[in-house]
Write a structure and sequence with these properties.
There is one protein chain. This protein has 115 residues and is an alpha+beta fold. It has one domain: Aminopeptidase (3-Layer(aba) Sandwich). It has 3 helices and 6 strands, in the order αβββαβαββ. It has helices spanning 2-5, 54-67, 83-92; strands spanning 12-16, 27-34, 37-45, 73-79, 95-96, 107-113. A hairpin with a 2-residue loop joins strand 2 (27-34) and strand 3. The structure holds coenzyme A. Coenzyme A (COA) binds at residues 42-45, 50-56, 78, 82, 84-85, 87-88, 91. Residues 42-45, 50-56, 78, 82, 84-85, 87-88, 91 line the site of coenzyme A.
Length: 115
Amino acid sequence: MIRELLPESPSVFWAGCPKVALEEVVAYICFRIVGTEFYLLNIAVKEGFRHRGLGYWLLLSAIDFGLKRGIKEAVLDVHRENHNAIGFYQALGFRFADPKEKNKKIFRVMEMKFP
Ligand SMILES: CC(C)(COP(=O)(O)OP(=O)(O)OC[C@H]1O[C@@H](n2cnc3c(N)ncnc32)[C@H](O)[C@@H]1OP(=O)(O)O)[C@@H](O)C(=O)NCCC(=O)NCCS
């Protein structure tokens, strides 16, 4: 099933497993680095494991991985009604690429730039 979630390479997939049950994936992140752009393909934390900082840790670790490889910006698409994810991304520092496009598109682009 995880294989089906993987986009075409080159992309990076990290899975998070609890210490007590290493065979159980409770969180994952999938991203791609193209030149100086980090593109988040997907991130999810299993219900029951949310709001413990797992998503935060996964995404910041992935961005740190990208920064060490020279990325200048991180970009993602989010469903405009996924308010939970939007709040999560905003708390991490992502902003809407075009604030005017609200309600125009189903998916909105969020970005974070690095000096
Ligand atoms: C979005 C998601 C990955 C967040 O994972 P998580 O492990 O629960 O997030 P964290 O616990 O690391 O949250 C980190 C911080 O983000 C912020 N945050 C998290 N959820 C938030 C929300 N609903 N609204 C506002 N801020 C939020 C908070 O500042 C939080 O820190 P705090 O708990 O100390 O307040 C998780 O909710 C999820 O899997 N959702 C379903 C899949 C999905 O929508 N993925 C995104 C696809 S674009």
